[in-house]
Amino acid sequence: MRRKRTLNDYELIFLIQSGDEDVLDLMVEKYRRLIAKMIHKFNLAYEFDDLMQEGIIILHRSVMQFDPAFNKTFTRYFELNFKRHLISVVSMQKRRADNRVLYRREIFENNHAVREASVFYRPHLEEIVRILTPLEWRVYVARHVKCVPPDECARALGLDAKVVYNALHRAKRKIRRHLGDTT
């Protein structure tokens, strides 16, 4: 075993590809710091243990697939494979977060399709009234609770149609932001 520690990457890879699984432990020890560094670089330290295991799996797969004929170093080959994996982990987490926000918005929109007298609607209105200005609240209730068209809202509230549209836009943006921050 002492002699195996002095071998370079290419010799270790050849031994592993030939079936010497004991040498894989040497590769894991050699690349453990690189795996940890890349996990921290992608700000994924909260999943460190899982990603360390995945890094070791990708290291083994990279060793088995590595071909020195392409004139690239093994370190760069493995680093690229693991980097691609971490990018896919980050993008999957982003998609999941976006889906949670969309799901909350869908619940919000479905609950706002019911009328004012609904027992399920009252808690949402109490939460929304705290984040809107009085003008935005009046316009929002007239438009989305009572389902009055924007032009009629403007006449009923004695406002210009542009003011109603702007207040609706601000109200929706505040509600979306509020729902998005709580996920």
List the helices and strands and how they pair.
Elements: H1 9-17, H2 22-41, H3 48-65, H4 74-112, H5 122-131, H6 134-145, H7 150-157, H8 161-181
Number of strands: 0
CATH architecture term of the largest domain:
Orthogonal Bundle
Overall structural domain count: 2
The shape is: rod-shaped
Assign the CATH topology of the largest domain. Rna Polymerase Sigma Factor, Chain: A
Question: Could you state the CATH homologous superfamily of the largest domain?
Answer: RNA polymerase sigma factor, region 2, helix turn helix motif
Q: Runs with pLDDT <50, length 5+?
A: 114-120
Q: For the CA atoms, what is the radius of gyration?
A: 29 Å
Fraction of residues in H or I helices? over 70%
Structural class call reads mainly alpha
Described by strand count, sense and barrel closure, the largest sheet is:
none
Order of helices and strands: HHHHHHHH
Return the average pLDDT rounded to an integer: 81
Strand content: under 5%
What is the number of helical segments per DSSP (H or I, 4+ residues)? 8
Q: Tell me the name of the CATH class of the largest domain.
A: Mainly Alpha
CA-to-CA gap between the ends? 52 Å
Short description:
The chain is 75% helix and 0% strand.
Write up what this structure looks like.
The chain is mainly α. The protein folds into two domains: 3-96, RNA polymerase sigma factor, region 2, helix turn helix motif (Rna Polymerase Sigma Factor, Chain: A); 114-181, Winged helix-like DNA-binding domain superfamily/Winged helix DNA-binding domain (Arc Repressor Mutant, subunit A). The chain is built from eight helices and no strands. The chain has helices spanning 9-17, 22-41, 48-65, 74-112, 122-131, 134-145, 150-157, 161-181. Helix 2 packs across helix 3 (48-65), helix 6 crosses helix 7 (150-157) and helix 6 (134-145) crosses helix 8 (161-181). The model is unreliable at 114-120 (pLDDT under 50).
